[in-house]
User: Fold this.
Amino acid sequence: MTWHTFFAMGGYAFYVWGAYGFATVVVIWNVVSAIRKRRTVLKMLREFALAEQAPKEGTGQHYASE
Amino acid sequence: MYKYASPKNFYVLAGQLIPWLGIITLVLFATGLYLGLYVAPPDYQQGDSYRIMFIHVPAAWMSMYVYVMMAGAGLVGLVWNIKLADMLATASAPIGASLTLMALVTGSLWGKPTWGTYWVWDARLTSELLLFFLYLGFIALQAAIDEPRRSARAGAVLALVGVVDIPIIHFSVIWWNTLHQPASIGALNRIISPTIYPTMLHPLLINSLAFFLFYYMVVLMRMRGEILARERHTGWVMQIVRASAEAAR
Assistant:
């Protein structure tokens, strides 16, 4: 079998590769969005933690120096 | 076994399992794709278009399996008030929705060359489309309620009502005279003496196992995010947050 006949899929290239292409997109979306989900939560919690610390440490100079 | 029911232990155990699930899933997908797209011969009636089956059938199976998991977890959360069960239900919804969409789109792309149409309002296709909307309804409902307990309960009730769609999808090809073909492999005896050739059966089974493990991988990943969010006031989560703040600095 040559690469050409492989990609041609007996004339059904659009349907076969369309289906496999869409499936690939769904699989990748699932992994990326699952990673993002946890990272977003962590980022939010980090910001909460910083916001809670800030007033205790805050002297005014802290902000001026930034 | 019970000690894994604590969110902390579950978080750690899931973190250890995820890479292994990922590696096994990857190997299975690679094998399934090779066997399905390259090794398996063209079908004598459908030519090469039938190769869509190798992803369409597993996606359709998983669309129903994930829904049953979601509704089952919802029920456990509802009755026994177990947080991890609520999180499993919530984490399953977007995965299930995406796999349902995959089943619909790949089915549509298979339908055009075999039936001559991308879509027909027959019982199988319509009930599968309804499943997609049930997932979306669950996600929208949970997103609309801020309080976690109430959000989980409302979602569980919706998921449990929607469970009637699962037997309808499954039996639709038997109950109604539809365009969609009946199952080629169903009961165990069909796997032992199947109605399709082994070269065609193997990639189907391998891909099915790959999708099955893939679901568990991504659902565990999502649950880890849910756990951090809902356990944010506990000491161990604060420790993780501090450590990640150190790493980000």
Observations:
- Residues 11-54 of chain A form one domain.
- The radius of gyration of chain A is 25 Å.
- The longest helix of chain A spans residues 13-57.
